[in-house]
Each structure stands twice: as C-alpha cells, then as structure tokens.
Amino acid sequence: MKKIIGLFYKDLFFTNRLFTGLGISAVVFVFSFFFPWLGIIPVLIFWALIALFLIDVLMLYRTAKGVFAKRHAPERLSNSDDNDLGVYIENWYPFNIGIAVIDEIPFQFQKRDIWFKSNLKPNERKLISYVLRPTKRGEYEFGNVMVYAKSPLGLIRRRFTFEQAETLPVYPSFLQMRKYELMAISNRLTDIGIKKIRRIGHSLEFEQVKNYVAGDDYRTINWKATARRGDLMVNSYTDEKSQHVYCVIDKSRAMKMPFDGLSLLDYAINASLVLSSVALIKEDKAGLITAAEKIGAVVPADRKPSQLNKILEVLYKERTRYLETNMELVYSTVRSVIKQRSLVVFFTNYESMNALNRQLPYLKRIAKFHLLLVVFFENTELKTLSEKQATDLEGIYIKTIAEKFAHDKKLIVKELAKYGIQSILSTPQNLTVNTINKYLELKAKQKI
C-alpha cells in the first residue's frame, strides 16, 4: 500500500480541469446558502468529480507501461550548426492520450522550452523533432526523458520517466565541412559564395595527351603525337598536387572575443577544418599547428583518408589561452615542422598597429620561406558604431574612436602587403568562404 501511495505521490499530477471542477463545486456550494433550491447539487458535483478522478486513476495506472519514449540523437553534435534531435513516442494504452514531453537537455543551452505537447491514438507512434545549436566545443550531458500522459477525462497526468542519460561530444563544425564537400563534388560551390577563379597560364604538372576538341588552346598542340596519330592531339595539364597547406591557429587571449555566441577561436577552427577538407579534395596535403604562449598541437601535412579525422580530433580539444602568442616559438616550430615551401594560413586577430608590430618581424621571417596568409577579423561592433549617426558630444567621441580602430585594420592590411604577406580581413560569419576563395585564388595563380 505504501509503495502504491508513493508511486502516486511521485508520478501523479493534477490538471487544471480537476481544479476547475472543484472550484465550480465550491462556488455552487456557497450559492446554495442563498438559493436553497440548489439543494444537493453541489454535493453531487463533488462526488461526481471524485468518481471521475478514481476512474481516471484506474485508466492510467492499471498498466505498468502505458507509454514508451526514447531520445534520438546523433553520436556527436556540430558546433555552431543546427543539430536535429528527436524523441520517439509510442502509446501502449487502448485509448487516446494527450502527452507532454520534457527532454532534459544540457545546461549549456540555457533553454527551458523543450516541452512538447501532442496526442496519440492507441498503438500510434510519433517522432517529435527539435533543433539544438551549441556554441561551445566539449562534452554535453543529456538527462532523462519525461512523458506526462493524460486520458480523455483529463483530470490527472501520469509521469513516465525514461533514463536516457548520455554524454554527447560537440565537435567543430563538421556539418559545414560536409556541406562544402558536397558542393565541391557537384561543382556548386558558387551557390555558397565561392568565386570562380580565372586560371592564369598553364599548370606545370602534365596529365595526358588527348584528342583536340573545340575550345582547347591551340598552343598546347603536341605536334609529334599529331604526326603519329594523324589527328590533332593536345597536351592536357592539371592542377599541381601534393602541395602543403598548413593552418596555424592562434589560441591567445586575442581570440577570446565573442561574436554571435561563438569565440573568434571557434570561427577560426571551423574555417580551418573546412579549408583542410577542400585542400584534401584538391589532392593537396593538409596540416595543423596551434599555438599560444606555448605550442599546442602539431599535425604534419598529409593526405591520407584519416587525416581529416585526425585534425578534427585535435581541434575538438583546443581551448583559448589567456596569454599572448609566443611568435618566436611559432616561427621555430614552423621552420622545424614544415620542410618545403607551403601555404601557411595564420588565423589570428589584431586590434591595433602595435599588436601587429610586435609580431611583424617573425611574420616576415616566415614569409621568406613560405607563402604566408594572415587571416584576422573585422570588428563588426566597431563598424556599427562608426556608421551610427552621432547626436551629441559623447556620440561624436565614440564614433571617432570607432573609425580610428576601423582605419587601423585597413592599415594592417597595407602594412602586411608592403612585405609581400597575403592577408584577409573578414567578418566572422564570412570567414570560411573568404578563406577558401583566397586559397583557390592562390592556387590558380600558382603562387604556392
């Protein structure tokens, strides 16, 4: 008996419909003092509610397992992307039920609206889908799935708790990476902002001798092969392959700045992952170096099928440090790890010319041996302030300072170009597209 009472106390919840009925009974009872003709009606209403309550309890509790629920989630979540999850529900009752579902999602999302209502017929199955967008890498702990069921009477709800506790890792944006891969395979990269780059001259890598077709460059005609075959034959060239592409990611405090829920480090990680994927599709070799006051991870360039997963596993664990980058150590690591001329994409952030001048001597040294591409971020908040109309003295002061910092960003681009260093000044949301466009441009111009 105690067990049954404990079960009711834990899993039985009263609905508004029951309280409404009791309220009506109480009101009628009060009015019966002033209108004796109401007589026994309040008592009948009360006992009718009690009888319906007991019937409702019997309907919901006569079977131990009236509802089944299970969370449908991927093995891992993609950072900064919309991830599809769901709760699978089955109704094992012989009558229609109304359900309310609560999925205990990780606290990192700070959401309290994962509450779904639906109706199920007998033996009906349903998948309730929802979307989560994580903004930090790491492990996310999900809790139980709770289902509140009510019968057609609707006076009470019975709670079913399904232990679905699990921990899901949040990796860098592999969904974005797959999207770019699919677009590249189907030649639809222009749909997502990737520009078509006009190739200048011929690649130095010979591929084959083939029959001439309309549109081939007549300067590539192979006269010896033409004489042997009796038909026009041309030399075919292909993009140079196996070129090394290294992403060097700055993890210092300069990359801690947030934008749209993500840090600049997360944007750099997502962009480097997509760039590595595109480089491997182009049959180049992709590598990775992370650094702050000390060197973090080093992944030598390779194009094995497992290379992308290796880079993904390394980026998953990276965190922002709170000290400045040791550029001397970065330079020595680049010289010791990268043995041949490569494209070195350095993801960092500069807010002033002073910040650049501290690192410029080491950047010039790296540029002597490799093609260096410095990628840093445009401060969108400062841009908004500089474009805002000033209405008072304080507004003029703020607008002036914002314009000064925005101008410094453009000076940094010119200063880097003075020493032959390529650069990208990009907003965080456009970082991936701009980086890939620059990589394809450099490759088309045969600068690597």
TrEMBL record:
<keyword id="KW-1133">Transmembrane helix</keyword>
<feature type="transmembrane region" description="Helical">
    <location>
        <begin position="12"/>
        <end position="34"/>
    </location>
</feature>
<keyword id="KW-0812">Transmembrane</keyword>
<dbReference type="Pfam" id="PF01882">
    <property type="entry name" value="DUF58"/>
</dbReference>
<feature type="transmembrane region" description="Helical">
    <location>
        <begin position="40"/>
        <end position="61"/>
    </location>
</feature>
<dbReference type="InterPro" id="IPR002881">
    <property type="entry name" value="DUF58"/>
</dbReference>
<keyword id="KW-0472">Membrane</keyword>
<protein>
    <submittedName>
        <fullName>DUF58 domain-containing protein</fullName>
    </submittedName>
</protein>
<feature type="domain" description="DUF58">
    <location>
        <begin position="208"/>
        <end position="353"/>
    </location>
</feature>
